[in-house]
Specification:
With 288 residues, the protein is α+β, with helices and mostly antiparallel strands. The chain is built from 8 helices and 12 strands. The chain has 3 domains: 143 residues, Endonuclease/exonuclease/phosphatase (Deoxyribonuclease I, Chain A); 61 residues, no CATH class; 70 residues.
């Protein structure tokens, strides 16, 4: 799968209509995913005008659109704003697919984080809530049934330069043999610097050529089984914390988060210090 960012900054207006988008190409189908935000302090009519302009720009019959984000329009209650938004989306074959509260405040749930897609382009659609404990909004997992993604090996490409004793010696030798007439035969300090900079870059590029190496993108090895269990426990506690008015529950959750944070920081330090200590090139390892 490849992805490409879509620049929509010209369509953005702070608080009224803030949007970012990415275009996904699976090799079989193309999907544009847009994340939208509207501040509750701004009027919905201006938001709807910007949204309509954006949809007209992005909509193509051969590309599937996914519009999601915090719109601050509650879909659990009927309102004129909700009806206008639904009517606008339907003109582009987009329907709202999530139906559970995405934010709970004072034991009252609201559905203000919506997902709109063209359900005619997918065999099956499912949306599930996910309590990640990072926000007062519930995360959502969207599963689309018939997006085919070719199997790929999880390998990444790293851009490096070949720097060793031989290449360093060659670089120094090239600089020693350079006459530098274009540098010293000028009275303009800026021109002298630019000429020297060009010479330096020319020899640097030739002495230290770029190399591309492939490597497997491994998971974070500092994450132990105990940390995974604790993170799962933290998510469960967050659900209790958010729906409970018991001060003891809230105090316990905050203390648990503080302890877990310290454990994670300690695990990272222990892993990377050991990794650096066992490395044959400590400076290079620290840079990674």
């Amino acid at each position: 799968m490849t992805y490409q960012s879509t620049d929509l900054t010209k369509l953005c207006k702070e608080k009224t209509f803030e949007i970012s988008a990415v275009k996904l190409n699976t090799g079989y189908s193309k999907v544009i995913v847009c994340c939208v935000y509207r501040s509750p302090s701004e009027t919905p009519n201006d938001f709807l005008k910007h949204l309509e302009k954006t949809l007209k720009l992005l909509y193509q019959p051969t590309i599937s659109l996914v519009i999601c984000g915090d719109l601050n329009i509650n879909f659990l209650i009927e309102s004129p704003t909700k009806q206008k938004l639904e009517s606008l989306m339907k003109t582009f074959n987009l329907v709202q697919v999530d139906n559970f509260p995405t934010r709970v405040c004072k034991n009252k749930g609201t559905l203000i984080d919506s997902i709109f897609i063209d359900n005619g382009k997918f065999n099956s659609i499912s949306v599930h809530p996910f309590e990640n404990g990072l926000s007062d909004h519930v995360a959502q997992i969207l599963i689309l049934g018939n997006i085919k993604v070719p199997l790929q090996k999880h390998k990444c490409t790293r851009k490096t330069r070949r720097i060793d004793n031989e290449s360093i010696e060659n670089f120094q030798s090239c600089l020693r043999e350079e006459a530098l007439d274009t540098v010293y035969n000028s009275d303009d300090a800026n021109r002298m610097f630019n000429n020297f900079h060009c010479i330096l870059l020319r020899h640097f590029e030739s002495s230290f050529p770029i190399q591309y190496t492939t490597y497997r993108n491994e998971h974070n090895e500092w994450i132990t089984k105990g940390i995974r269990v604790s993170c799962k426990r933290k998510r469960n506690l967050y659900s209790l914390y958010k729906h409970s008015n018991n001060p003891q529950v809230k105090k316990y959750y905050k203390k648990y988060c503080s302890i877990l944070r310290k454990v994670i920081i300690g695990a990272k330090k222990l892993y990377y210090n050991k990794h650096i200590e066992l490395s044959s090139n400590r400076v290079k390892t620290r840079g990674k």
